[in-house]
Design brief:
The radius of gyration is 23 Å and the shape is globular. It is of the alpha/beta class and about 300 residues long. It has helices spanning about 10-20, 25-50, 115-130, 165-175, 180-195, 245-260, 265-270, 280-290, and strands at about 1-5, 55-65, 70-80, 80-90, 95-100, 100-105, 110, 135-145, 150, 160, 225-230, 230-235, 240-245, 290-295, 300-305. Strand 14 (about 290-295) and strand 15 (about 300-305) form a beta hairpin. The chain starts with a strand and ends with a strand. It has two domains: about 1-195, Trna Endonuclease, Chain: A, domain 1 (3-Layer(aba) Sandwich); about 225-305, no CATH class.
Length: about 300
């Protein structure tokens, strides 16, 4: 049972939009690709966890802090006596270990040992459990999710689960499941409450409104929509169609995510969407879906209160 599902991070969303609206450096592009790839791998692992019985409590993407030190957990499973900690990697290609160091076969370069992050998270989680007076044992594993990954010369005693082992690993996990009680659900809820929404380690490049490309971005392929067919916007690249209102609202969400301090006005949205529809059409959409604040040229729109 998923107690805390996984959501796409604000950092990843920002980088996706910025990658389409400005020129990223090669380093920024590679960071975005790695972040996107990592998220896709975590989603793939979540799909495997969905096959577990409801006797497991599953928490995804936790950002926690202990002794003024933040640490991130990809996936956490709570069972009757143990906690299973997973670090998920979506590596592709051939790698090898030599004298406890990791290398890429393709480049020959040394890479950061992914076990170090797992060990760090396990250590800090154990400290957190001590502070919270819980005595669960911890089993920590490094998960390689991609079938395109190969690791040579790996010692057999490493806490690594390879792609070919995942099916049997999950099957054995289900055999270990047992009835949980209020102690376990209370612990899971406590971790959810301790989850930090914002990380100080984001790497979003500096940007401003003037430098970003304006226009409506396709919901399917993230290219720019350039044509209209009656009440639809049509992507010239993938032919994806979307209602005008839906497309405008989606791009308003992008605008407010990129510029949370800007007031949403008819003129701003009209300009942001590169005049794909008239100002009157934008005004109607905003009036229908947002709450208007003020009057005349100083008016702006805010989200309606949640019911």
């Amino acid at each position: 049972m998923f107690i805390k599902p996984r959501y796409e991070s604000t950092e990843l969303q920002l980088l996706r939009y910025l990658s389409k609206r400005m020129n990223l450096t090669d380093k920024e592009k590679q960071y975005y690709v790695n972040l996107k790839k990592g998220y896709e791998g975590e989603l793939s692992f979540d799909m495997l966890l969905e096959n577990l019985s409801d006797e497991w409590l599953i928490l995804s993407d936790l950002l926690l802090e202990v002794n003024n030190t933040m640490f991130q957990i990809d996936s956490l499973l709570v069972s009757r006596h143990s906690i299973f900690l997973f670090e998920v990697k979506n590596y592709e290609g051939d790698y090898y270990i030599d004298a406890d160091k990791w290398y890429s076969v393709a480049s020959g370069n040394e890479i950061k040992d992914p076990l170090l992050q797992l060990k760090r998270s396990e250590f800090l989680l154990r400290r957190l459990l001590q502070d919270l007076n819980f005595n669960f044992s911890i089993e920590a594993y490094l998960i390689f999710i991609s079938p395109k990954f190969t690791l040579y010369q790996a010692p057999r005693n490493l806490p690594i689960i390879f792609p070919t082992q995942l099916h049997y690993f999950m099957k054995n996990l289900n055999k270990k499941s047992s009835k949980l009680n209020e102690k376990h659900s209370g612990f899971a809820e406590l971790l959810v409450n301790k989850h930090l929404n914002d990380s100080s380690f984001t790497q979003v490049p500096n940007y401003d409104y003037e430098q970003l490309r304006k226009g409506v971005i396709c919901k399917c392929c993230y290219s720019f929509l350039i044509s209209r067919e009656e009440n639809k916007l049509v992507c010239a690249k993938c032919l994806c169609k979307e209602d005008i209102e839906s497309a405008i609202l989606r791009n308003v969400e992008q605008l407010t995510l990129l510029f949370p301090d800007k007031k949403v006005t008819t003129n701003l949205v009209h300009e942001w969407c590169e005049a794909i529809v008239s100002k009157k059409r934008v005004w109607r959409i905003l009036t229908k879906n947002f709450r208007k604040v003020g009057q005349g040229k100083f008016s702006y729109y805010v989200h309606l209160p949640k019911s």
